[in-house]
Amino acid sequence: MSEHSQEQEDTNSPDYWMRNEGLTPYEVMLRSAPPDYLTNIEENICEFPPKYPVYYFFYGTLTTPAILKNTIDLPEEPKMRKAKVIGYALAKWGDYPALIDGDSGQDVHGYAYIVQTKEEAEKLASYETTAYMEAPCLIYFDDDEEPVEVPGKTFVYAGDAQALLEKRFDRKLWLRQTAGKLV
User: In this protein, which residues make up the domain named Gamma-glutamylcyclotransferase AIG2-like (predicted)?
Assistant: First the structure.
């Protein structure tokens, strides 16, 4: 290239950056995007649920009203609504179901209940153990009552879902349960 053509080369062109800097077209596009491109979301897809009361989605043993009643010390059996969450799947963790990420259209059916207080939520977390962690979700109801959908919470498997599916030792969960200490 002559000295004259080097001066005229547009350093802002995608071709220049791919040729001279070895960037991929995607990297070039990201360089030209505004600084807040990846964090500037126009609207929330799923709002975080209010603190309390808040609906919790259950898919395993807590779908049994008597177990839920005893777990959070209710005076009578709770009124639960048939519900589902979308984008999740169930796997087995020993004898127990574990909610894991699923395909975008996949759904898991269960029941939802309005947890009234932080104390009730803490009792649920204790019941679920460190094998599960609380997560926000969007709950869709399978009945004719209102509301038809609400932001809520559920408990998802806290370990390595792939290890769970492959039925192999889950080091991630083991570390979480033992806090990295030998027991």
Answer: 56-172
How would you write 84-128 as a 3-class SS string?
EEECEEEEEECCEEEEEECCCCCEEEEEEEEECCHHHHHHHHHHH
Cis peptide preceding 34, ω within 30 of 0:
no
**At 169, which CATH number?**
3.10.490.10
Total number of domains constituting the chain: 2
For 145, residues 6+ apart whose C-beta sits below 8 A from its C-beta are 81
pLDDT tens digits, 6-56: 456 666 665 665 566 666 766 666 666 666 666 665 554 555 556 899 999
110: its two tokens: 């269960």
pTM: predicted TM-score of the whole model, two decimal places: 0.70
**Same domain as 17, residue 101:** no
